[in-house]
Amino acid sequence: MLLTVVALSFASCKNNADYKKTKSGIMYKIFSDGKDSVAKTGNTVKMDLIIKIGSTDSVLQTTVGKTPAYIPMQGEVPANAYSQLEVFPLLRKGDSVVIVQLTDTLFKKNPQMPPFIKKGDRLITIIKVLDIFRTQEAEAKDKETVMAKEKIRQEQEMETDLVKGTADMSAWLAENKIAAVKAGKGTFVVIKDPGTGMQADSGKYASVRYNGKDLSGKTFETNMDPKAPPFTFQVATESSSMRAIRGWDEGLPLFKKGGKGTLYVPGALAYGRYPPQNSPFKANQALVFDIEVVDVSDTPPPPQQQQQLPPEIRAQIEKQQQMQKQQLQKKPAH
After folding, report:
1. Is 269 buried (19+), middle (13-18) or exposed (0-12) by CB count in 10 A?
2. Can you tell me whether residue 80 is helix, strand or coil?
């Protein structure tokens, strides 16, 4: 249904045929049977959406095939808002809508637009209203069902990506004549010096200097400068949350304090299919880390000595942590 709406919308979008306007000037076109009541303040609208750039037809965001969006209705939207929210009070369960915003107007509202949004273009949002919840209880029950399905989808997605990523990494290592051992589910490790101190095992706190690269050898992040603090984190156990990417949790336990080597991490064990926004990573991009284990401890260092990761990287790790917790909940008790 949503794909049909997309086709119909773009057929008429060029000449604005049949489009209405909100008070602020946003164009919209609703496809509706008019049978259900419209969303009201206090309701939550469950929807699938696609956001596109008009000139290139490139997708900026989509929930189709993923977790739908849940948008609370929070009262009247200001008349000059120039926001998609202006259209939401007009929607019913089962409706589809195309919303068109002119980028020139968006720039007037906020000159600091992302670089992929250009003047003279259109931002097109296509929405399918899946449901409207009149109570918080109904919304919570639906979210629980949706998240259970999403957990299964993400696990299957990651396993599929991991099989391909591990095979690709193995082939790349062979092609480049790199002898590496496989750790965990698919991280490959070259041990240059195993170290002589405490083992950087699961549950230990490891302080690491690293140089992160892509497979071409281009560095995207490093703290090898002696003036920079090492990255200190707790190597994940089965019952603890991740503090770094999965590839590090798999590779670090092969080293002791003072150890040096290289981790070759398939994309599924790095930042996965959906890397952080504004990061340099592509979907399922394999990464390489030259590492030096500066210290290993049973206890965490003082907070001021811990290196802080960029916000977008922390957000991705937190997402991975949530997936890990969900996987642990599936394991049978012994």
Report:
1. buried
2. coil
- 245 closest CA partner among 220, 266, 217: 266
CA 56, CA 48: separation in Å to the nearest integer?
Answer: 21
**19 contacts 139 by C-beta, under 8 angstroms:** no
Cα 172 off chain centre by: 26
Report the pLDDT averaged over residues 85-100: 93
Task: Report the C-alpha gap between 81 and 87 in whole angstroms.
Answer: 11
Q: Which domains does the chain have, with CATH numbers?
A: 2-134 (3.10.50.40), 161-327 (3.10.50.40)
CA-based max dimension of the chain: 74
* Sign of the four-CA dihedral 147, 150, 156, 159: negative
**Whether pLDDT at 10 is above 60:** no
CB-based contact 256:230 (threshold 8 Å) = no
DSSP strand E in 204-315: where?
A: 205-213, 219-222, 231-234, 260-265, 287-297
Angle at 111 between CA 105 and CA 112, to 5 degrees: 130
Whether 97 shows a pLDDT value over 50: the answer reads yes
Phi and psi of 55, rounded to 5°? -70, -30
Q: Which amino acid is at 136?
A: Q
Single-letter amino acid, residue 201 = D
DSSP single-letter state for residue 167: H
Q: Which of 240, 291, 241 is nearest to 265 (CA)?
A: 291
The answer to whether 202 touches 237, Cβ cutoff 8 Å, is yes
Hey, what are 38's tokens?
Answer: 């419209």
**65 vs 250: CA distance, rounded Å:** 30
* CA distances in angstroms from 241 to 9, 232, 286, 319, listed in the order given: 45, 15, 22, 11
Structure tokens at 234: 């707790």
> pLDDT-derived band of residue 243, with 50, 70 and 90 as boundaries?
confident
- For residues 246 and 237, the model is more confident at 246
Query: Would the pLDDT of 331 be above 50?
Result: no
pLDDT tens digits along 284-301: 999 999 999 999 999 887
